[in-house]
């Protein structure tokens, strides 16, 4: 799961971006700040895998880049995405610069690439080729290790079928086997109950709600 921090003083945009990224299976926004001066301190309290920051905000996007903790990848997401801004941002340590108008799928791919240490090219053709490798979500090992039977159970949980007895009847297995599968699911998804498992399965795109 990639942890993302957004630094943008346009609250409506930042909250909308957070909601959009939280819908991506392998991403979670862990914080939003509206001032570049606050960003470095925030990251000391809340680690992040990638930072998305605006160019024009209190404290300045370029200056915020300079003060980022070592090893924290950053992408500048701005309405002023120009070759000059790109050169300056990359020189200051950014992994790339994207326009705020990019599609969510491209932004998500860029986040994965940045987390992987890639510096994104400016050329649209080169950027598209670079991001093609990062177009698919990368699930945590636990989620990727779910068995076909466990996914069946998650699909039923997402539809509101949660009692051990009914799950056993639907799947033609014993209640003990259901409980064993649930214990495995909880461990793999790092959740503690059936409701949390259903919510996480829906968020990951493993199951759909009824």
Question: Can you characterise this structure?
Answer:
Helix content is 51%, strand content 12%. It is built from eleven helices and five strands. It has two domains: 131 residues, Rossmann fold, CATH 3.40.50.2300; 64 residues, Arc Repressor Mutant, subunit A. Helix 8 crosses helix 10, helix 8 crosses helix 11 and helix 9 crosses helix 10. A five-stranded parallel beta sheet has the order 2-1-3-4-5, sandwiched between helices. It is elongated, with a radius of gyration of 20 Å. Strand 4, helix 4 and strand 5 form a beta-alpha-beta unit. By secondary structure, the chain is an alpha/beta fold.
Question: Topology, pairings included?
Answer:
Layout (H helix, E strand, L loop, with lengths): L1 E6 L3 H12 L4 E7 L2 H10 L4 E4 L7 H6 L7 E5 L4 H9 L4 E4 L4 H12 L8 H9 L8 H4 L3 H11 L5 H8 L3 H15 L4 H11 L6
Parallel strand pairs: 1-2, 1-3, 3-4, 4-5
Give descriptors for this structure.
single chain, alpha/beta, Rossmann fold, 5-stranded parallel beta sheet, 12% strand
**Structural class of the helix and strand makeup?**
alpha/beta
Name the strands of the widest sheet in spatial order: 2-1-3-4-5
Report the radius of gyration as a whole number of Å.
20 Å
CATH topology tier name of the largest domain: Rossmann fold
User: Considering DSSP H and I runs of 4 or more, what fraction of the residues is helical?
Assistant: 40-55%
Q: What is the name of the CATH superfamily of the largest domain?
A: Response regulator
Distance between the termini: 25 Å
What's the number of domains? 2
Number of helices: 11
What is the overall shape?
A: elongated
User: Which blocks of ≥5 consecutive residues have pLDDT under 50?
Assistant: none
Mean pLDDT: 93
Main β sheet profile: 5 strands, parallel
The run of helices and strands is: EHEHEHEHEHHHHHHH
CATH class of the largest domain: Alpha Beta
- SS strand fraction: 5-15%
Beta strands, count: 5
Which second-level CATH architecture of the largest domain applies?
3-Layer(aba) Sandwich
